[in-house]
Design brief:
By secondary structure, the chain is an alpha+beta fold. The protein has eight helices and 22 strands. About 20% of the residues lie in helices and about 35% in strands. The two termini are about 25 Å apart.
Length: about 550
């Protein structure tokens, strides 16, 4: 089973980008300066007037702030000096009248008439500032409207977008996958179109991809480099040799719908299909990948498992690139929220695997779950790194009908990390580790290998231990070129469970693989690439098989 590539399509729409909302124009800049410096100047004048113990001129106009007359702002006039010793003595001694410090303290006990005027003036200035803010917002809206009508963007906006595109073009981050666990924090939906007659907006995205493959080891999977498809040495399949294959089955199409009005939290409904159905009688048939909705912090539907984090993966051309990561897509109910700006909590109930039980004695019955899987995870987020970890628990159950049922506890611990190695984000390192019992088939390498549990002849069910490791690296050499490398290891310890595992000696016990590629970024929407891969498989009986493959691609994203 292939893993979820997680390549989110680019944001879609014919609407104007929100970056244009903050486009500086001469009119906006002038209005902003006026709204900022005029109130500051007026407050400074009020402060200087208070220092001179003079009451502001109440006859000053209430419109544009102006400097008060000198007679009221610069202190008492020499011709009208009303400060007399006798008057001061009537309120205290002559010494008190001639002592500025003490006099000011005495005056502070009585209400200062100028304070009320200052408060009124401050409220007036705040009202003006609010009016100027509304005017700026109106000018911004007008700028957007004019851009919509003319179909062109202001030159300053075009320059800013070119600068941003240049930065993205030299960063390896632009080639990586988006975070499917991302918290919905706002309802911005750039490059979307309105669903006419409603308050919804929608976007259509995806990509068209053509793969050309030359396989040297006769892997039975002609469409993805599957470890389970490696032909073992000495078998008829291995003797058949190399072959060529070409297909467009990874191409996918998605529809994204959102309600963007203010009376609802951030939300989304998302459906995606690809055509990676490889059964001979249904080759290339549409296949459901994602079908979920989000409402605030809640998610329900089918999407990538809660403990998955495709951000750690470099861009690998092979569709089975994530065989060592628990990147399965399953039905689930999830709650996810930010506890802090840097800390995210996730918890959910998921559908466990329907099979995965090795039955070497061929006892009657079938795998049948009664309870969902419980998963809880945290992630630490920072601009240059992310670390996520989590645990899951579920029941593995064998139902033998009238003979009763057997069950075992399955658990998994997962750690993921992505680290950018430089400030420009040209290089990154991705790490993944998983350890558990009874959860091997949540990883692509062991899907379909009956790798979760072993059913003994006495109908005892035992969970099988397994562990997985993946290291990925990506580097953007130039805006036109990038390189990606990945190494993965998967080990299943059937023999640690029981001697009866020997009855399944043809089953896969361990596998490792390596991928390396070079991508040519001709355009944001168009990429081509060439990749080499090598893998080895070991069975329970010690038999080994190896395979190597070269794969090229051409991909158009929209």
């Amino acid at each position: 089973m292939e893993a979820d590539r997680g390549r989110a399509a680019h944001p879609r729409s014919t609407a104007v980008d929100r970056r244009r909302l903050r486009a500086p124009t001469f009119e906006i800049v002038f209005a902003g300066l006026a709204a900022t410096f005029i109130p500051m100047a007026a407050l400074a004048q009020d402060a200087s007037g208070a220092g001179a113990s003079a009451k502001p001129d109440s006859s000053a106009p209430t419109g544009k702030p102006e400097r008060a007359p000198a007679s009221s702002q610069d202190g008492p006039s020499p011709d009208k000096d009303e400060s007399k010793p006798g008057d001061a003595a009537s309120n205290g001694s002559d010494e008190e009248a001639n002592s500025p410090g003490e006099n000011s303290e005495a005056a502070s006990d009585d209400p200062d008439p100028s304070e009320n005027d200052k408060e009124a003036r401050l409220k007036e200035l705040e009202a003006k500032l609010e009016a100027q803010t509304r005017r700026i917002e109106g000018l911004e809206a007008e700028l957007v409207r004019q851009a919509d009508e003319s179909g062109t963007k202001p030159k300053i906006v075009q320059q800013e977008e070119k600068k941003k595109d240049k930065e993205e073009a030299t960063s390896i981050e632009s080639t990586l996958r988006d975070n499917p666990l991302e918290i919905a924090e706002d309802k911005d939906f750039p490059k979307s179109v309105p669903l006419f007659g409603s308050k919804f907006r929608f976007g259509i995205g995806g990509y068209v991809k053509l793969d050309a493959i030359v396989d040297a080891g006769n892997n039975t999977n002609r469409y993805a480099f599957s470890s389970g498809g490696i032909s073992m040495s000495g078998t008829p399949d291995a003797e058949q040799g190399a072959y060529f294959s070409m297909h467009p089955f990874e191409s996918r199409l998605n529809v994204d719908v959102r309600y963007t009005e203010k009376d609802a939290p951030p939300n989304q409904a998302f459906i995606e299909f690809d055509f990676f159905t490889t059964a001979p009688d249904r080759l290339g048939a549409p296949r459901l990948r994602h079908a979920y909705f989000r409402w605030g912090d809640f998610l329900a539907g089918q999407t990538t498992a809660l403990l998955s984090d495709p951000r750690i993966l470099p861009f690998i051309i092979d569709f089975a690139f994530a065989d060592s990561v628990n990147a399965i897509r399953i039905p689930q109910i999830r709650y996810q929220t930010k506890l802090k700006d840097w800390l995210v909590l996730r918890a959910g109930l998921e559908m466990p695997e329907r099979g995965g039980i090795d039955n070497p004695s061929e006892l009657s019955g079938a795998a049948s779950s009664l309870l969902p899987r419980v998963a809880v995870g945290f992630s630490f987020e920072a601009p240059r790194y992310s670390v996520s970890f989590g645990v899951s628990l579920n029941e593995i159950r064998w139902d033998a009908g009238a003979q009763g049922s057997s069950s075992a506890l399955a658990w998994a611990m997962v750690v993921n990390s992505r680290i950018f190695l430089d400030k420009e984000k040209k290089s990154f390192l991705g790490l993944h580790g998983m350890l558990g019992d009874g959860t091997a088939e949540t990883v692509g390498a062991f899907v379909g290998q009956n790798a979760n549990a072993l059913l003994l002849s006495n109908q005892t069910l035992l969970a099988i231990p397994a562990y997985h490791l993946l290291v990925g690296y990506g580097h953007r050499w130039h805006e036109l070129f990038s390189t990606n490398l990945a190494f993965a290891l998967d080990v299943l310890e059937r023999d640690q469970v029981s001697d009866e595992a020997a009855l399944s000696e043809a089953a896969m016990a361990a596998t490792w693989n390596f991928h390396g590629n070079v991508l040519l970024h001709i355009h944001t929407a168009f990429q081509i690439g060439l990749e080499y891969m090598f893998a080895e498989r070991t069975n329970e009986n010690g038999d080994r098989g190896q395979d190597q493959r070269v794969q090229s691609m051409a991909m158009y994203r929209f």
